[in-house]
Write a structure and sequence with these properties.
With about 170 residues, the chain is mainly alpha-helical. About 50% of the residues lie in helices and about 10% in strands.
Length: about 170
């Protein structure tokens, strides 16, 4: 192999390594995390949860009749109704879902912060809801495929930026 071919190959590998490092960077993980959080919050507001990571979505456990009666008497968040099981009473839990930790190649998200209406944290409320069968803070297989598609688009953009694709 000639020196110019070796130099050209090294240049390609260098640009590829740069693209991979950019794709795994914290900022990319955060962007992907916000995309994932939006998917989870939207699905939950529609009344669906995911029992196990990468499983299928299923309707959230229904509300009891007594709880529905109580909800009719209080001011609910505009994103719900008294009968709708979508983990929204005040809206604080789902609005609190955010990125907890993002670093090169990994990401964690979940409920954050304290409640305005009690001394509990949003994580404690999510844990309570999970024990009641209303598991929402998981990624379904369908959502995983959407996140993967988004990541592939981003990676393709990085490859084009570093002149590895046209």
């Amino acid at each position: 192999m000639s020196d110019s071919a070796i130099k050209s190959l090294r240049n390609i590998f260098s640009r590829l390594e740069k693209s991979v490092n950019e794709a795994l960077a914290r900022s990319q993980m955060e962007d992907l995390g916000h995309f994932a959080v939006d998917l989870v919050v939207k699905r939950t507001r529609l009344g669906y949860g995911v029992d196990k990571q990468f499983g299928t979505k299923s309707p959230l456990q229904g509300l009891t009749l007594n709880y529905i009666k109580r909800r009719k008497k209080i001011g609910l968040d505009k994103t719900t109704s008294a009968r709708k099981s979508n983990l929204t009473n005040t809206g604080q839990l789902l609005r609190s879902v955010d990125i907890i930790d993002a670093k090169k190649g990994s990401l964690r998200f979940g409920p954050t912060g304290r409640r305005a209406d009690s001394s509990a944290t949003n994580l404690e409320i999510a844990d309570f809801q999970e024990r009641k069968g209303r598991i929402f803070n998981r990624i379904s297989q369908l959502e995983f495929n959407q996140i993967l598609r988004e990541y592939r688009i981003t990676f393709g953009d990085l490859l084009r930026k570093n002149r590895l694709l046209r």
